[in-house]
Amino acid sequence: MAEREGSGVGRAVVWVASALAIAGIAAMVWMWRGGGVQLEPTAEARAPVEECSATISGATAMAPRLAPEIAAAFLSQNGYSIERNETVEGVRHIVGARGALRCSISIRASSSTQGLRDLGEGKTLIALSQRPITQRDIALLRAANAGDFAAERTQAEHVVAFDAYTVAVNAANPVRSITVDAVRDIALGVAPDWSSVGGDAAAFTLYTPIDGVGPEDYPNDLIQRPNPVWQDARLRARVLANESDAVAALARDPAGIGFISGAFVAGDPGVRALALAAGGPPQSPSADNVRAELYPLARRLFVYVRPNDMRSNTFVQRFVAFFSSPAAFDIIDKAGFVALRPESRMSRVAATLSGCRFGTAEYAALISATNGATRMPVELTFEPNTLRLDEEARHFVSENAETLRERLRTGGRIVLVGHTDYTGETAKNRALALRRALAARAAFERQGLFGIEVESAGEQCPSGDNDTPEGRLQNRRVEIWLKAQSAPG
Q1: Which of 144, 262, 400, 413 could bond 120 through an S-S bridge, CB–CB 3.0 to 4.6 Å?
Q2: CA angle 423, 460, 452 (to 5 degrees)
């Protein structure tokens, strides 16, 4: 019995020794093939992991130069080293590496309208736009289930820079300044030739990038007609793919005139921008004049994102926020645009009046009148072809006069801002909008409420689509803005 037990122990010892020997040999083989003992694969040994991937598309003024510089700086600030930065078949690809992690950003220049369309169709994460979103855009995005860009505009729309929209000419052109009215006549084909504005007797040749020929784009803000003549620009103007091409064409044509972002005109010896006069002395499109609101054709540049992405997508949140950082300010200024520095008064009001045509006389008056104010979520509208408030507006006045009177008693201020559609002449619309505000004030005064201020925004702040009867009716309105006692004037 004892002998059999001893034999069992011996066999067990032999079995354990054999197992250990086999395990040792296997371990040596594994270490030889793996280069040493490894508890887990290192980051370098793992396959690259795509931490983020984003497509950006839109405005030709922003996509070729500004957006790539912003994207590269954004990746660098977040710890990535740039391992790829190149353009392939018109698309800029920027890839950052952080150990085994990769972040890829692709940027496609198309147009503001196309960028917004891509956003709705899910083809892009961020849309670049050199104009405010329109009611038509909002309807298309809503139909595409991209979100309600009207109700959630603060989530979707982000002003990221200012741009001096220039009237550019060949460097040899003797004309140095021009009025906004003369520019309108040229765009409409009314002005005969360059001699009408102090130049040689040569016919105008118009140039513009493709992102400037839509009904909601400049120079339609100059033309201001129900059916903008500029929409036939393809038939009577040289429409180029982008700002760089338009600048190059102008540099070859002494009779040329172009509507181009100032960022692409500055520094090119073959072209220069004309100083513009809009009821006062001509102003050059310098950054200082844009900041001081002196140059009459300054505009805002936007990025648009889906509201849900702004709430839940970390990449979108950080990328949008980066535009408001000092690092981005330097990039924006260096690219020839004007950064949204917090000390700029324009920056503080840009979002408040996001639907307005930036750079107009009405806009300048409006930001002064509404500085520190909050707009009530109601619009007073009128019976067709009259200055008489419609039934709904009259009901609001009678129901809320006492509440608003209390605000005035406690030192607050009330400002009524009149608006029109853009049918007719700009100056007449400015006066009509003021008469609308006065008519609304008269309605409040009949309720015993006195001391209300009035202002006119004319046709410059559309809330509806000016190309439809319903939209034009929506634009004929009066807004109510409320100021607290301590609000600056």
Answers
A1: 144
A2: 105
Q: How many domains does the chain have?
A: 3
Counts of helices then strands in the chain (DSSP H, E): 19, 18
Within 10 angstroms of residue 213's Cβ, the number of other Cβ atoms is 22
Tokens found for residue 158: 């982000």
Contact criterion met (CB below 8 Å) for 273 and 264? no
How many other β-carbons are positioned within 10 Å of the β-carbon of residue 89? Answer: 5
Q: Which of 136, 164, 180, 133 is nearest to 426 (CA)?
A: 180
pLDDT in tens, 290-332: 887 788 888 889 999 999 999 999 999 999 999 989 999 999 9
Choose among 244, 240, 270: nearest CA to 64. 244
The three-state secondary structure class of 443 is: helix
Residue 408 lies in a domain: yes
Higher pLDDT, 248 or 360: 248
317, 402: one domain: no
Structural domain span for residue 104: 49-160+300-350
The Cα 24–Cα 53 span in angstroms is: 45
Ramachandran angles phi, psi of 234, nearest 5°: -60, -25
In a domain, 400, yes or no: yes
Distance between CA 43 and CA 30 in Å, rounded? 20
Alpha-carbon gap, residue 193 to 182, rounded angstroms: 11
201 phi and psi, to 5 degrees? -80, 70
* pTM for this entry: 0.70
Strands 157-170 and 298-304: antiparallel
What is the identity of the amino acid at 452?
I
Name the amino acid, one letter, at 137: D
Q: Going by DSSP bridges, is the β-strand pair 275-277/101-109 parallel, antiparallel, or unpaired?
A: unpaired
